[in-house]
């Protein structure tokens, strides 16, 4: 697909979205639980956030904090025994939670696309990557492929007419120019493609897209199986599948996991550049604060199924509010001499069991600032300066009850775990 068409389609979708809703995506009090034999896993428990048009929102947090489950909920891809218990997922103002499976099939891949973790497991091992990428075009870009097929057949028709005319000239013309005409006829015949199918067009577009995202020898790569490609190549194939859909929202679920630093940087640069050109929005999920800082406009810090801090990347990096965010920042290895000579900071304790999470604030057993109220009440997100939101009782305005805001002892913090 030509870049011009990609940008045109993306801008058309952007204009439609702008007329429909203030936010491209708005999630309100989302709760996704899993009903297991051991108990109810409260994987996502009251999450709210927004994604603006033409922005990258990052989700960051430890493994198991609910980042991927939140993303899967946006597409209603939660499998049994999981269930979206409550909440709203407003995409262009329409609630996805209320939509049927048939309606979701029209949204998945067309309006919202997800790039999953581990491309080796996401790609079919017995089908060539070119066929898998072509399938995306066949499912989501059929109208475009049909137009291109008509153009290709019209080109063939014109070539045949030119050959017919030149053969006629060859018979009636002088022998002096016959050799030139023969060479021209031969060159035109080489351009003719017999029995052009819609699948041929899909493969052509697939190779063009791989070339566009920086994969060399795309014509060779599309004829390979996933196991014949490196991890970075497979990840680019997955990203290409997401881009082939021209979606308004692209969800990237840790797309650089297990890749070396060089390939990681290349993929991040590619995502940033493609977002700049296509003007779509991206939800980028990662456990790396460095990646968030390099790529995202805003960030949501997740802990144990809750968002604990939310705002612009620069504001949260320069002045983190929540003790968990501060702990994550302190745990980043530094390259200064002083940092090399000091111990690497860690967040004490373990991630809580989401079947039996701590009462109140779920971070309080690991928090150095935990107070009595932290054991009793799970704090909501509060508005702070620079449009940053934080869920922490340290920033409560009314602290008139000294007992509620008394600092907990280590023994008290562990009582309800």
Short description:
With 417 residues, this protein is an alpha/beta fold. Helix content is 43%, strand content 17%. It has a domain at 127-224.
Total helical segments:
17
Number of E strands: 12
Structural class: alpha/beta
Biggest beta sheet summary: 8 strands, mixed
How far do the termini sit from each other? 55 Å
Radius of gyration: 27 Å
Strand order of the largest sheet: 6-7-8-3-9-10-12-11
Percent range for β-strand residues: 15-25%
The shape is elongated
* Mean pLDDT score: 86
The H/E string reads: HEEEHEEHEHHHHHHHEHEHEEHHHHEEH
Poorly predicted spans: 1-19
Provide keyphrases for this structure.
four-stranded antiparallel β-sheet; 17 helices; 43% helix; disordered N terminus; ABC_transporter-like_ATP-bd; translocase
SSE layout and pairings?
Layout: H1 3-20, E1 25-35, E2 40-51, E3 56-60, H2 67-74, E4 82-91, E5 94-95, H3 101-107, E6 112-115, H4 119-122, H5 129-140, H6 142-172, H7 178-191, H8 198-212, H9 218-221, H10 231-244, E7 249-253, H11 261-278, E8 281-286, H12 289-295, E9 298-303, E10 306-312, H13 313-318, H14 323-330, H15 337-341, H16 372-376, E11 382-383, E12 389-390, H17 410-414
Parallel strand pairs: 3-8, 3-9, 6-7, 7-8
Antiparallel strand pairs: 1-2, 1-4, 4-5, 9-10, 10-12, 11-12
Helix pairs in contact: 5-8, 5-10, 6-7, 10-11
Structure description:
The chain has helices spanning 3-20, 67-74, 101-107, 119-122, 129-140, 142-172, 178-191, 198-212, 218-221, 231-244, 261-278, 289-295, 313-318, 323-330, 337-341, 372-376, 410-414; strands at residues 25-35, 40-51, 56-60, 82-91, 94-95, 112-115, 249-253, 281-286, 298-303, 306-312, 382-383, 389-390. The model is unreliable at 1-19 (pLDDT under 50). The protein is built from 17 helices and twelve strands. The strands form two sheets. It has an eight-stranded mixed beta sheet, sandwiched between helices. It has a domain at 127-224. By secondary structure, the protein is α/β, with parallel strands linked by helices. It is found in: Cell membrane. Residues 142-176 form a coiled coil.
């Amino acid at each position: 697909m030509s870049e011009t068409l990609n940008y045109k389609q993306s801008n058309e979708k952007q204009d439609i979205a702008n007329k429909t809703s203030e936010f491209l995506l708005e999630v309100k009090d989302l709760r996704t639980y899993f009903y297991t034999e051991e108990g109810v896993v409260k994987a996502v428990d009251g999450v709210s956030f927004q994604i603006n048009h033409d922005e990258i929102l990052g989700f960051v947090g430890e493994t198991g904090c609910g980042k991927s489950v939140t993303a899967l909920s946006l597409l209603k891809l939660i499998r049994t025994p999981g269930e979206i218990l409550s909440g709203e997922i407003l995409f262009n103002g329409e609630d996805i939670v209320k939509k049927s499976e048939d309606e979701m099939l029209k949204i998945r891949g067309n309006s919202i696309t997800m790039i999953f973790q581990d491309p080796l497991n996401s790609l079919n091992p017995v089908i060539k990557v070119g066929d898998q990428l072509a399938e995306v075009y066949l499912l989501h870009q059929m109208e475009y492929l049909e137009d291109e097929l008509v153009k290709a057949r019209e080109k063939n028709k014109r070539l045949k007419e030119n050959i017919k005319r030149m053969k006629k000239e060859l018979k009636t013309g002088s022998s002096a120019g016959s050799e030139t005409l023969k060479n021209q006829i031969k060159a035109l015949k080489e351009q003719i493609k017999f029995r052009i199918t819609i699948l041929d067009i899909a493969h052509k577009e697939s190779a063009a897209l791989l070339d566009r995202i920086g994969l060399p020898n795309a014509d060779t790569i599309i004829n390979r199986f996933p196991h014949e490609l490196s991890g970075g190549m497979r990840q680019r194939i997955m990203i290409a599948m997401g881009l082939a859909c021209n979606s308004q929202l692209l969800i990237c679920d840790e797309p650089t996991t297990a890749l070396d630093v060089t390939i990681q940087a290349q993929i991040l640069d590619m995502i940033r550049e493609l977002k700049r050109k296509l003007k779509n929005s991206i939800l980028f999920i990662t456990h790396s604060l460095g990646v968030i800082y390099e790529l995202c406009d805003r960030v949501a810090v997740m802990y144990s199924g809750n968002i604990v801090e939310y705002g612009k990347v620069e504001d949260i990096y320069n002045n983190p509010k929540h003790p968990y965010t501060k702990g994550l920042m302190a745990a980043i290895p530094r390259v200064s001499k002083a940092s090399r000579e000091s111990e690497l900071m860690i967040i004490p304790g373990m991630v809580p069991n989401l079947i039996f999470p701590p009462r109140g604030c779920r971070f309080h057993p690991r928090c150095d600032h935990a107070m009595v109220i932290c054991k009793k009440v799970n704090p909501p997100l509060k508005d702070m300066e620079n449009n940053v939101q934080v869920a922490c009782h340290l920033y409560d305005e009314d602290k008139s009850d000294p007992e509620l805001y008394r600092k907990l002892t280590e023994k008290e913090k562990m009582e309800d775990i």
